[in-house]
From TrEMBL:
This is Nuclear factor of activated T-cells, cytoplasmic 1-like isoform X2. Coiled coil: none annotated. PANTHER family: NFAT, NUCLEAR FACTOR OF ACTIVATED T-CELLS, CYTOPLASMIC 1. It comes from Scomber scombrus. It is found in: Cytoplasm; Nucleus. The lineage of its organism: Eukaryota, Metazoa, Chordata, Craniata, Vertebrata.
Length: 715
DNA sequence: CTGGAGGAGACATCCAGAACC
DNA sequence: GTGGTTCTGGATGTCTCCTCC
C-alpha cells in the first residue's frame, strides 16, 4: 500500500528513531484524543467522531481511525486479505514496522516549541538497509540521527522536578523494550552512559541494573524493598512477582502490608492471611521504604468523566516526563521500582530475558544458554536458574525445540508498537479465535486453564508465506482490548499452562512488566501453533495501580486480547515483525455471566435513513435487551441517543435482530460514526460497538464493503 | 450545589465438586 | 481405592461507585 502520509522530518533517521519520535509526538499530540475515552464511562472506549473516510472495521492490515486520529506512528502496509471477522478493530496492527524512506507515518503537524533535540538510537533504518549490503548493515545500524522532539508548552508539565533522571515517574521508563513511550526516546548514543551496550553496572543513578533488580537490591537501595518485618521474608522476589502461596496475601509495594495496596480500606476482598496463613498485622513501614501514597491516597479513582480527565492529564504528563527522563537516563531497568513484591510458585524468574541490551557481538544478539554463561557470568551468578532454565520442556513433545534465532533484541519493536499482521509474503493469522469469555485466575487461585477457542479446542495461529526451514518463535502476550492503541495489558498477564493435555511447548520470558509466552513455530507443522498452553492471570488492581507511572485503571478494565508476534529474520539482516491480535476476551467472572456481549454485527454501516435489520451475535442477550445508538461529541457529551427497535420474537441468548434507527441528520455529507450497545438493564451494558451512517448517495456496492473502501482509500 | 445514605456493582478470595494423576 | 493436585463454577465479604434525596 502506498502511504499517502508525508514525513516531515529534516534529518535522516532510522525507523527506530522515527518511530520513537513519532511515538513521542503521538503521545504529546494525541493523548488528548487518546484519552478522549476518558470522558466516557468504563464502557465507552470509542471516541465518537465523524469520519472523513470510511474505515474498515476489522482488516488487520488497515489503519484504524485511531491511527489517524491519534497521529499514531502506525502506517499502513501492503495490503493483504482480511481474514475473519474482527469487530473491534482487533488488529490495530495496521502498521509497518519498517518505515518507508522519506515517509512520515502520520500527518501530525509539528508542535510548537519548546523543543528537545534527541539523538536517536538507530535501529533498522530502512533507507540505510536498502543502501547497504548485509555486511555493513551492522555498522550502519549504529548510526545516530538527530531528530527534534517538539514538546507542548512547558506549562503543561506537572512536576519539573521529575526531569531529574533519578525521579523517573514510570516504572517502565527504564524498560526500553516494552514500551515505546520510553524506548522511543532512548538516547543510547550520546554518551557512554547511554549506550545500549554499556555495562549494566553503569547508571546515572549510581546503581547498576543488577542492583536495581529486586534480586540484588537491599533495603538501602530499593525504596520498595520489603521491610525486614515483612511476611515476604524468605520468599524469592522474582521479577517483581515474588512467590505467593495460594491463599496468601502478598505485600503491597506501598508496604501497607495486610492493609493491602488499596489505600484506605486495605483494598478489596478478603485479605486475612499472612504469608504463613496467620492473619496479617499491620506493620509500620520504614519511612524510606515507600514513597507510595499513604493509605488515604489510594490511586484508585472512579471512572467518572472528571477523574478520567484528570487521569488523562496524568497520563499525558507522565508520558512527557517519561520521555524527558529517557533523554537523560540510560536504559537500565529498575525492575524493583513500583512493582508489587509478589509472585507465585508458577512464576519463574526470567529476569535475564530482561537483559535485552545485549552486547553488540554482531548479529547474534544471542540469549541462548551458551552465551548467557559466557557473557554474563556475573548476572548468571544471580539468575543462574532463571532464564537459562526457562526453557521448560514438555516431555511428551516429540521434537526438540531448537531455539530459533534470538528475538529479544533492542532492535525489535516495543510491545506497544502497532505492527502489521502481514508484510510482503508473510501473514500471521489467527485461524481459530479464542472464546469471548475466559475467566482469568488470580495469583491466589489455581489456574483456570488455557484459553479455549469459541468452536472448541484452542486458538490456532499460523504464519503464512514462510518457506524457510528454520523454526521461528511465536510470542504471545496479553494486550488491551479498548479502542486505544493495542498495548500490553497492565492488569493481565499470560500464564503458561503445562500438563499432559498441553501439546504445545512454550516458555515464559519477561519483557519489562509484560510476560511473554514463546511458542515454537515449526515448518513441519506448517508454521502453525495450537495455543493450548496460554491462560490468563489477573493481577490485583490495587497492586498495579500503585505502580509508578501506571495510569490505567483496573476497575471494569477486564477485556483483553491475545496478541501474537513473530519476528522473521531476512537475508539482508532486516527483521520483519508481524503481529496479530485476537478478538476481545472478557476476563471477569460476573461480566461473563451477566453482561451482554456483542461479538458480531451483520451490518457495519448503512445510510442515514436507517430501517435495515441488523443481526447481532454474541452472548447474554435477553428478551428485554435494548439496543441504544449513541453519538457523542469529542468532548464526551451526548449529541444523540436513540433506542433501536429490537425484534423481540427473534431474541435468543446469542443473537438479536435490531432495526437500524434513522440517524438524526439526513443530510450528512460524509460517513458518521456512532456507537451502539446492548443493554440488559441498569449498568449491564455491552461494550460500545461501532456503526457508520453513510450519506444517502453512497452507492450500494461501497456500502456493502467498507473495508475495501478503506483499502482503496489508503492505497 | 453539596453531602450523606442506601443500593448496586466490582473485586478478590474462598469453597466445593469434578477430573485427573 | 486413596490421596493429592488441578480445573472449574459458584458464592461471598468488602469495598467503590452511582443515584437519589
Amino acid at each position: 500500500m502506498q502511504d499517502t502520509f508525508c514525513l516531515s522530518v529534516n534529518s535522516k533517521f532510522s525507523f527506530g528513531a522515527a518511530a520513537g519520535k513519532e511515538r513521542g509526538l503521538q503521545l504529546l499530540t494525541s493523548l488528548a484524543a487518546e484519552m478522549k475515552s476518558a470522558e466516557e464511562d468504563a464502557y465507552s472506549y470509542t471516541p465518537n467522531v465523524s469520519l472523513s473516510l470510511p474505515l474498515g472495521m476489522g482488516n488487520p492490515c488497515l489503519a484504524t481511525q485511531y491511527h489517524t486520529l491519534q497521529s499514531s506512528p502506525v502506517i499502513s502496509v501492503s495490503s493483504c486479505h482480511q481474514t475473519g471477522y474482527n469487530l473491534q478493530n482487533d488488529n490495530h496492527a495496521a502498521s509497518g514496522y519498517y518505515l518507508p524512506h522519506g515517509l512520515r507515518p502520520n500527518g501530525a503537524p509539528a508542535l510548537e516549541s519548546p523543543r528537545i533535540e534527541i539523538t536517536a538510537y538507530s535501529q533498522y533504518p530502512e533507507d540505510e538497509v536498502e543502501e547497504s549490503n548485509t555486511d555493513d548493515h551492522v555498522i550502519k545500524r549504529g548510526v545516530n540521527s538527530i531528530v527534534t522532539l517538539t514538546l507542548p508548552n512547558a506549562d503543561g508539565y506537572r512536576d519539573p522536578s521529575c526531569l531529574s533522571p533519578a525521579s523517573s515517574i514510570s516504572s517502565r521508563s527504564c524498560n526500553s523494550e516494552a514500551s515505546s513511550y520510553e524506548s522511543s526516546f532512548y538516547n543510547y548514543d550520546n554518551s557512554p552512559q547511554n549506550s545500549p551496550w554499556q555495562s549494566p553496572c553503569v547508571s546515572p543513578r549510581g546503581s547498576s541494573s543488577l542492583l536495581s533488580c529486586p534480586h540484588a537490591s537491599g533495603p538501602a537501595t530499593s525504596p520498595h524493598h520489603s521491610p525486614s518485618t515483612s511476611p515476604q521474608i524468605g520468599a524469592v522476589a522474582e521479577e517483581g512477582w515474588p512467590a505467593q502461596p495460594r491463599g496468601s496475601r502478598p505485600n503491597s509495594p506501598s508496604c501497607s502490608g495486610g492493609g493491602g495496596g488499596n489505600g484506605g480500606g486495605g483494598g478489596m476482598g478478603k485479605r486475612k492471611y499472612s504469608f504463613n496463613g496467620a492473619p496479617y498485622r499491620q506493620t509500620s513501614c520504614s519511612p524510606n521504604q515507600s514513597p507510595t501514597p499513604s493509605p488515604h491516597g489510594s490511586p484508585r479513582v472512579s471512572v467518572t468523566d472528571e477523574n478520567w480527565l484528570a487521569n488523562a492529564n496524568q497520563y499525558t504528563n507522565s508520558a512527557i516526563v517519561a520521555a524527558i527522563n529517557a533523554l537523560t537516563t540510560d536504559g537500565v531497568v529498575d525492575m524493583g521500582e513500583g512493582i508489587p513484591i509478589k509472585t507465585r510458585k508458577t512464576m519463574i524468574d526470567h529476569s535475564s530475558s530482561m537483559s535485552l541490551k545485549v552486547e553488540p557481538g554482531g548479529e547474534d544478539l544471542c540469549l541462548d544458554e551458551e552465551l548467557c554463561h559466557e557473557d554474563y557470568p556475573s548476572r548468571l551468578a544471580l539468575k543462574k536458574e532463571n532464564y537459562c532454565g526457562g526453557f521448560l520442556d514438555v516431555p511428551q513433545h516429540p521434537y526438540p525445540w531448537s531455539k530459533p534465532k534470538p528475538y529479544l533484541s533492542p532492535s525489535l519493536p516495543a510491545l506497544d508498537w502497532q505492527l502489521p499482521s502481514c508484510s510482503g509474503p508473510y501473514s500471521l493469522q489467527i485461524e481459530l479465535q479464542p472464546k469471548s469469555h475466559h475467566r482469568a485466575h488470580y495469583e491466589t487461585e489455581g489456574s483456570r486453564g488455557a484459553v479455549k477457542a469459541s468452536s472448541g479446542g484452542h486458538p490456532v495461529v499460523q504464519l503464512y508465506g514462510y518457506m524457510e526451514s528454520e523454526p521461528l518463535t511465536l510470542q504471545l502476550f496479553i494486550g488491551t482490548a479498548d479502542d486505544r492503541l493495542l498495548r500490553p495489558h497492565a492488569f493481565y498477564q499470560v500464564h503458561r499452562i503445562t500438563g499432559k493435555t498441553v501439546s504445545t511447548a512454550s516458555h515464559e520470558v519477561m519483557q519489562s512488566n509484560t510476560k511473554l509466552l514463546e511458542i515454537p513455530l515449526q515448518p513441519e507443522n506448517n508454521m502453525r501453533a495450537i495455543i493450548d498452553c496460554a491462560g490468563i492471570l489477573k493481577l490485583r488492581n490495587s497492586d498495579i495501580e500503585l505502580r509508578k507511572g501506571e495510569t490505567d485503571i483496573g476497575r471494569k478494565n477486564t477485556r483483553v486480547r491475545l496478541v501474537f508476534r513473530v519476528h522473521i529474520n531476512q537475508p539482508n539482516g532486516r527483521t520483519v515483525s508481524l503481529q496479530a491480535s485476537s478478538n476481545p476476551i472478557e476476563c471477569s467472572q460476573r461480566s461473563a455471566q451477566e453482561l451482554p456481549l456483542v461479538e458480531k454485527q451483520s451490518v457495519d454501516s448503512y445510510p442515514a435513513s436507517g430501517g435495515k435489520m441488523m443481526l447481532l451475535s454474541g452472548l447474554n442477550f435477553l428478551p428485554d435487551s435494548k439496543v441504544m445508538f449513541v453519538e457523542k461529541a469529542q468532548d464526551g457529551h451526548h449529541l444523540w441517543e436513540t433506542e433501536a427497535k429490537v425484534d423481540k420474537d427473534s431474541v435468543k441468548s446469542n443473537s438479536l435482530v435490531v432495526e437500524i434507527p434513522r440517524y438524526r441528520n439526513q443530510r450528512i455529507s460524509s460517513p458518521v460514526q456512532v456507537n451502539f450497545y446492548v443493554c440488559n438493564g441498569k449498568r449491564k451494558r455491552s461494550q460500545y460497538q461501532r456503526f457508520n451512517y453513510l450519506p444517502p448517495n453512497v452507492n450500494e456496492i461501497i456500502r456493502n464493503d467498507l473495508s475495501n473502501i478503506s483499502v482503496h482509500t489508503h492505497a
